[in-house]
Amino acid sequence: MVFSPRLSAAVILASQAAQILCSIQYPVGFANTGTLDALNFTEIFAAPEDKSNARWERDSFHGLTTFARASPLRCFGADGDSGYDVAVIGAPFDTATSFRPGARFGPNGIRQGSRRLGVDRINVPAKVRVSDHLDVVDCGDVPMVLTDNKVALRQLELANAALLSRTSLRSYSGKSIAKDGKFHPRVLTLGGDHTITLPLLRGVAGVYGPVSVIHFDSHLDTWKPKPMAGGPWLPDEEIPVSHGSYFWYAWKEGLLAPNNANIHVGIRGAINSWKDYEEDHEFGWVISHAEDVEDVGWKGVVKHILETVGDNPVYITLDIDVLDPGVAPATGTPEIGGITTREIKKILQGLSGLKIVGADIVEVAPGYDTQDEITQIAAANIGWEMLALMAKTPLTE
Ligand SMILES: [Mn+2]
């Protein structure tokens, strides 16, 4: 470094300024008053109506980042006895993807994208404030091992089942649609690659029986395990579930509502054979293509969905690649010609009245996002719409 006279003069000036600043007595200075022990920090930092940590997360740009500023809860630990109506969990898993990985960072990416949302803020077009109807907590992420997919998916299955087995904080007049007649919490899961939907569906089917699935995606995901094997496989070796075959397992296990009461929305991915479409129908589905939004409009798409699922309990799973990569580039298998954020909001809001027993948002891979986090913001807003649907309709018969 060249130490010029001008620079050394500047350094002297700066150090003089620092000395002056140090000698200034700042107006408050609790630490110097000797009264630190006497201060009631609960009164200073917590809102009068809420002695929890609400004040710490009141503004969108600071605090512990939970989904839409839901209260953080150690659902499997110290807070295991606390009640809630919706548990948000993260499923940081991406080792069953066929193309670009990275969705293990999805849960925290979606939380980051949700910082300007709030479970206690009003969703204007949906005309609902979630917290008026539901106590939503963020349980953090389920630990999923990185070395064995089978074990990881079983971990998620157990955690989800544990949350669903609880009784929800609120109960309702009328009969619950759950098989045991009780009211259970609902789970909103932040993925993770799409494979996570299989253990999650096992959970809701256990509580409610087979469910109608509304599947937003550009891909069918009903492929038999073999075509998804990813190359030659050893003789007699089991082909594990992947993010393209989990719905085949769900159908085989009887988790899906019968009579083709399940619908894919936004489909546009290339296929290897028309047989894929025939088998998809055989496995319990009907299809709404991405271009339907152009051809029949969001109202036509909503009508198709409502006609398909009827009065069944509904599980919503949304692969972020249902959106156009122009508005949501951060995903593993992007497909052009997708749905816009405005359209997905209209479609979701059109589902008001359905009994949503659970939901997930998957395949958000923040590593491919733009610097302004557009995919994460889109995913978070979709999760917020899902909560609004849950808030509007209790799970009563
Ligand atoms: Mn997909």
Automatic annotation (TrEMBL):
Pfam family, one: Arginase
Domain of life: Eukaryota
GO biological process: putrescine biosynthetic process from arginine, via agmatine
Keyword entries, A-Z: Hydrolase, Metal-binding
Coiled-coil ranges from the UniProt annotation: none
Gene Ontology molecular function, alphabetical: agmatinase activity; metal ion binding
Membership in a protein family: Belongs to the arginase family. Agmatinase subfamily.
Protein name: Agmatinase 1
Provenance organism: Trametes pubescens
